Structures are given as structure tokens and as C-alpha cells.
Amino acid sequence: MTTAPTRGPEAQEQSAVDAGLAYHRNEVGDKVFKGLSVGSGVMIFVILALVALFLILQAIPAFRAEPGTLPYGNGEFWPYVLPFIFGTLWSSFLALLLAVPVSIGIALFISHYAPRKLASGLGYVIDLLAAVPSVVFGLWGINTLAPAIQPLYSWLVDNLGWIPIFAGPVSGTGRTMMTAAIVLAVMILPIITSLSREVFLQTPPLQEQASLALGATRWEMIRQVVFPFGRSGIVSASMLGLGRALGETMAVAMVLSGAGVITFKLLTSENPNTIAANIALAFPEAYNIGVNQLIATGLILFAITLAVNMLARYIVGLQNAKAEGEKGKKKRA
Fold first, then answer.
1. CATH of residue 224
2. Of 307, 289, 305, nearest to 59 (Cα)?
3. Per-residue b/e over 11-32, b at no fewer than 16 CB within 10 Å?
4. 1, 29, 60, 78: which has the fewest C-beta neighbours closer than 10 Å?
5. In a domain, 229, yes or no
6. CB 100: neighbour CB atoms within 10 A?
7. Tens digits of per-residue pLDDT, 280-330?
């Protein structure tokens, strides 16, 4: 019977030194990683604060300008910017209304209905669609979508013109608020679809199998299990898509024949413009106080986007709290 050789004092001392060096290296690595993580997080707030500070400082001259002295609109700031605020919110709402049901349907098809090979390929195509530049969507909207859909607009005005949003006169080019909303919907569809798909795939399989085992159909299982589990994720995805639609510039500027009006009509040639598109179109020719006026409208858009994100976080927090409360009730029962 052999025994392991005992280590001498020098070997034990060397082993302790090696262990100390390894611990020191790990400690230094942890400190560096923590510093980078904290610095990156702080940098986000610093950049956001600097952007807000820049917008506020540049917008103050426009806010303080005497009535009738501003170069755009009738010389006053708020009557000038209100139609653009309306156009921004109206076009984004329409885009969200069109995109969310389609996105959820595609996400459900990929996650619960399509074969695995088809689902992976379709998911790749959806993700690739998010990388298409907005100017390409704008060109597609002008050259393909608007001429193709204009006969439908004429039919809607002729047959459903008694509905205020479909009232005429119809646009002869198809460059209307409805066309801009469809283009925006196509642009935000990949974002909402990708996030909703990932949320649906995270649904606990045991809950899905339990619902099916109790006799539920696949659609009933989705309504009973998948939708409640992914409710907060759907809201988050929709709000991210809304943020993209609010800030979209080139596609709207190319497709929409915008003006400083407030109207809910979708098919006429006179449509409200958006803040981002108006800045893109007017900024190259702006000078002096006109630059401040346009930057002030950008500050309004920044505030709207920030408010939308805060509202999204609040809604998601309510949904999570409600879900936790339901789990607590089930455990107590």
C-alpha cells in the first residue's frame, strides 16, 4: 500500500502564493468589469441629459420669441407646431393599429404553428426586414404602393365617403395619410414581430401541455396560456414599434404630401405632416431664429417619445404586478 507523498513547506508556500495571485487577478477582473458596466450605464443617462440640455437651450429663443416674429407658420410657435404634433400622433396610431394584429399573427405562426424549418427561415426574413433602410420603404411607398392602392381609395370615397375618415375629395396620386400609415406599419412590423415571437417562445411548455391535456384546442391554449403570459411583452413590443413610428423621418417625408393642417381624413391630398418629416424638409433652408424654431419642435418630439416610453414602462409594471398577484392567489388557494 502506497501513500501520496507529503508536500514540503516550500511547495505549500508556492501553492499559497499561486492561489493568492489567482484571487488577485479575479478580483481585478471583477473590478474592471464592474467599472465598465457602471460606466456604460451612467453614460446612457449622461448622453440623454446632454441631448435634452442641447434641445432645451436651443429651443428657448423660439419659446421666448415675440408673437409674429417667428419665420414659420403665422409667427407663433404653438399654432405652428400643433398640426405637426397631431400628424405625428395620428400617423403613428394608424401604423400601430395596422401593424400590431399582423405582427402578433406572424409571431404566433412562427412560434406555434409553422414547421421548424419554415419557422426559422421566416424568422430570419422578418429580422432581415428590420435592416432595410427607411429610404427604401419611402421609394416603395411612392413608386409602388401609392399608385397601386389609389383605385381602392377612389372606391372607398365613392362608397364609404359618408364616414368622416373616408370623405373626399380623393387624392389622385395615392400619397395620403393612409399610405404613410401603411408604410410605417410595414417598417415597425419586424420589431413587434421579433419581440412578440421571443416572448411567445418563453411560455412554459408544461402550462401549454396541461391546457391541451385538459381538452383545449390549440387556439384555446393560446388564449388561455400564451397571451396572458406574453401580455407585458406584447405591450413592450408595441411601444417600441410606436417609438420607431414617432421618430420616422425619410419615409414619411417622401410619401406624405404634408401641410400644416389638422384633419382626420385619410384619403385626401391635404394631410397633416409629422414633426420629424417637417424638420427634415425645412431644416436645410432654415436660418437664425428659424433653426431654433425647428429645434423647439424637435424638443416636443423628444418629450412625446419620452412620455410614450414612460407610459410603456408603467403599463408593463402594472401587468407584471397583476401577474404576480394572480400567482400569489393561486399559491394561497
1. 1.10.3720.10
2. 289
3. eeeeeeeeeeeeeeeeeeeeee
4. 1
5. yes
6. 21
7. 888 888 788 888 889 999 999 999 988 888 887 787 777 667 766 666 666
